[in-house]
Write a structure and sequence with these properties.
InterPro entries: OMP_Chaperone_SurA (IPR050280), PPIase_dom_sf (IPR046357), PPIase_PpiC (IPR000297), PPIase_PpiC_CS (IPR023058), Trigger_fact/SurA_dom_sf (IPR027304)
GO molecular function, one term: peptidyl-prolyl cis-trans isomerase activity
CATH class of the largest domain: Mainly Alpha
Keywords: Isomerase, Rotamase, Signal
Protein name: Peptidylprolyl isomerase
Oligomer: single chain
Distance between the termini: 17 Å
CATH superfamily of the largest domain: Porin chaperone SurA, peptide-binding domain
Helix content: 40-55%
Domain PpiC: 182-282, 285-381
Order of helices and strands: HHEEHHHHHHEEHHHEHEEEHHHEHEEEHE
Length: 457
């Protein structure tokens, strides 16, 4: 039973992330009826509408392909309350997610939807909304999810398990409840986004330097931003972004802007979004207002050969043991999801690095099936989830045949489950401690769910 609870909580974490993103067709297709909709939960100034619960239930029913029980519905509402409590406490504790991260996540999600349906036009036709309207619908739930995840990280970041903890966890599993694992593999990847050439970057820098000279000679920054900036959100406003607090913009941008006095210009600054020329407009306490001109290198002229050459050099270093695959992934991979995990992919079902063979990405299944443990592929063309062109090398770390769970072969997996169990308890304790520090009001209709009783996590 203990083992199963570990699996269940991991599975729930993945499911709740999907629910709270509201990214499936069911979520978008759900139309809120003013006559039937209404607030069913308040957590400080955070609210849950009846349609939020209906959408989440519909999504899970579509995934499970069955009708949910009343208890399942209560669990989903409990998860929604969980997020609202995390977000409410984050506001009190000044835990924030910068706007660039929110917009970057939103852009990635939109690019994925477009890649799945075929084009932006088809996406707009399907939902009878403009791309901007779709993004506006998703921005708030994505922001809330990112804040809730950051709060969970703050609560659980210092937790760890010892070998003794893992052994105790395993020994509590009844012998007749030990699961039987099918063939599982551990797969690592190092991803390099295909970039533009140095020549193209230099051209963009020089264009911005010319604009800087024109501004210093007396031309209006705002006018030039309107004419030339490739940031559609701010170009129409003369490049002005509005007031932001510290840590809400990407570090490179913020660091350069905060060195300025009002009216001063930066040198050309590079960030993940392109190249910026920045002017500080005003400081107001802990907030600051800037305008910028953003220019991007021509992304249609991607240098795939240079990207492959870079990966080949890295592969040679790994094969000669001058660097481990794990360190190479952490230091050089452009994939944010796997780089901090030593490059290892995780199962979407339970977040374990041990992936059942039948769950391996079809695009690499036959490659993995023919690899020897410890081998690394040559660079392979790859398209990221948000549609960017890239190259990657694939590493087969392990290939475990079918077997019944045991400490020797499954230590890492059991350690993950044990750590997750410890995290669940920490989150549950946090909820008990904090549920009375915010205002929570739940519609009496849901009294039978006992939302505030027992373990919320």
């Amino acid at each position: 039973m203990i083992f199963k609870s570990g699996l269940q909580i991991l599975s729930k974490h993945t499911f709740f992330s999907l629910v709270l993103l509201l990214v499936t067709s069911v979520a978008w297709a759900q139309q809120r009826s003013k006559a039937l909709d209404g607030i069913i939960v308040k957590v400080n100034n955070q609210i849950i509408l009846r349609s939020d619960l209906q959408t989440a239930v519909a999504q899970e029913e579509a995934q499970a392909q069955k009708k949910l029980s009343d208890q399942d519905r209560c669990d989903i509402l409990r998860a929604l309350v969980q997020q609202k409590l995390l977000v409410a406490r984050a506001e009190i504790d000044s835990v924030v997610v910068d706007q660039e991260t929110i917009e970057g996540t939103l852009d990635q999600r939109m690019a994925y939807f477009v890649s799945q349906i075929g084009s932006e036009q088809k996406l707009e036709e399907y939902y009878n909304k403009s791309i901007k309207q779709i993004k506006d619908d998703l921005r708030k739930p994505i922001k809330e999810q990112l804040i809730a995840e950051k709060m969970q990280g703050e609560i659980t970041q210092k937790l760890s398990v010892t070998p003794n903890d893992v052994k105790k966890f395993f020994n509590k599993i009844p012998q007749d409840s030990l699961p039987y694992f099918s063939t599982e593999v551990e797969i690592g990847q190092i991803v390099k986004l295909a970039g533009v050439s140095k020549t193209q970057k230099d051209e963009v820098r020089n264009r911005l330097l010319e604009l800087k000279k024109r501004i210093q000679a007396g031309e209006s920054f705002a006018t030039l931003a309107t004419q030339y900036s490739e940031d559609p959100g701010s170009a129409a406003k003369g490049g002005e972004l509005g007031f932001f607090k510290k840590r809400e913009l990407v570090p490179e941008y913020e660091a350069a802007a905060l060195k300025l006095e009002p009216g001063q210009l930066t040198d050309v600054i590079e960030s993940q979004f392109g190249f910026h020329l920045i002017q500080l407009i005003e400081r107001r306490g802990e907030e600051y207002n800037t305008r910028h001109i953003l220019l991007k290198p021509n992304s249609t002229n991607i240098d795939m050969e240079a990207t492959a050459a870079e990966l080949n050099k890295l592969r040679a270093r790994i094969q000669s043991d001058s660097i481990s695959f794990s360190k190479a992934a952490k230091d050089f991979s452009d994939d944010k999801v796997t780089k901090d995990n030593g490059g290892l992919m995780m199962s979407p079902r339970d977040r374990s690095t041990f992936i059942p063979l039948d769950q391996v990405d079809p695009s690499i299944f036959f490659i993995i099936d023919t690899m020897k443990v410890g081998s690394i592929t040559k660079p392979l063309e790859y398209r990221t989830e948000d549609g960017k062109q890239a190259m990657r090398i694939i590493y087969l770390k392990s290939n475990t045949p079918p077997h019944q769970a045991n400490l020797k072969d499954d230590y890492q997996k059991l350690a993950t489950y044990a750590l997750n169990e410890k995290r669940r308890k920490a989150l549950s304790d946090w909820f008990e401690k904090n549920k009375n520090t915010v205002y929570i009001d739940i519609d009496p209709e849901f009294n039978n769910c006992d939302i505030l009783q027992g373990n919320l996590f």
